[in-house]
Design a protein that fits this description.
The chain contains 6 helices and 10 strands. Strand 8 (126-130) and strand 9 (133-137) form a beta hairpin. The radius of gyration is 16 Å and the shape is globular. The protein has 2 domains: 2-82, Alpha-Beta Plaits; 85-174, Alpha-Beta Plaits. The chain is of the alpha+beta class. It has a 4-stranded antiparallel β-sheet, sandwiched between helices. A 4-stranded antiparallel β-sheet has the order 8-9-7-10. It has a two-stranded antiparallel sheet with strand order 2-3.
């Protein structure tokens, strides 16, 4: 049995409607995934499954989400070992947990994307690409950055952001 981490791009279903994490766990279990559990109410799911391709799991979760909630949401999946490597690869370990984030990508980013994003950086903000994912240290105020509006699917491809506290929490839940 393999352990996987799934990150939903959004849990907002429409005006005033959000996915309840108990419903997300139930959806995963209806798809045949086992021991589904969530971390905070932002679409982070850990579960067990027979070993299969990441693309297959993403497709199953996306189809299951449409069936259960009536809306498409991009889902990014990593196996446990890859997630632990991602967590160990934080280039900004000296940053504040809530101000350091990673955009976990379905397809790896090329380092040249940093040049395109550089014009949006302010002050103490730092960026790095590690194993195809984009790490950002927003400095002291992520809420005031000009980077977030630039991190669109159109510019970067399918991906989703998580802060460092969430990355660590998911790694701890994997329990290795």
């Amino acid at each position: 049995m393999a352990v996987y981490v799934a990150l939903l791009h959004s849990i907002v279903l429409g005006a005033g409607r959000r996915v309840v994490m108990a419903d997300l766990k139930a959806m995963a279990e209806e798809l045949g995934f086992r021991n589904a559990r969530t971390l905070v109410a932002t679409g982070n799911l850990i579960f067990e499954s027979e070993t299969q391709s990441i693309a297959s799991i993403e497709a199953q979760l996306e189809a299951g989400f449409i069936k259960a909630f009536g809306k498409h949401v991009d889902v990014i999946v990593r196996d446990a070992e890859t997630w632990l490597t991602l967590a160990e690869g934080n280039p900004f370990g000296d940053g504040i947990g809530s101000e350091v984030a990673i955009r976990v990508m379905r397809q790896p980013l090329e380092p040249k994307i940093l040049d395109m994003l550089a014009k949006y950086r302010r002050g103490q903000e730092r960026m790095a690409i590690v194993n195809g994912d984009l790490w950002i240290d927003f400095g002291l105020k992520a809420s005031e950055t000009k980077l977030l509006p630039a991190l669109t699917t159109k510019r970067l491809g399918i991906g989703t952001m998580r802060n460092w506290n969430t990355v660590r929490g998911l790694a701890e839940m994997i329990g290795r």
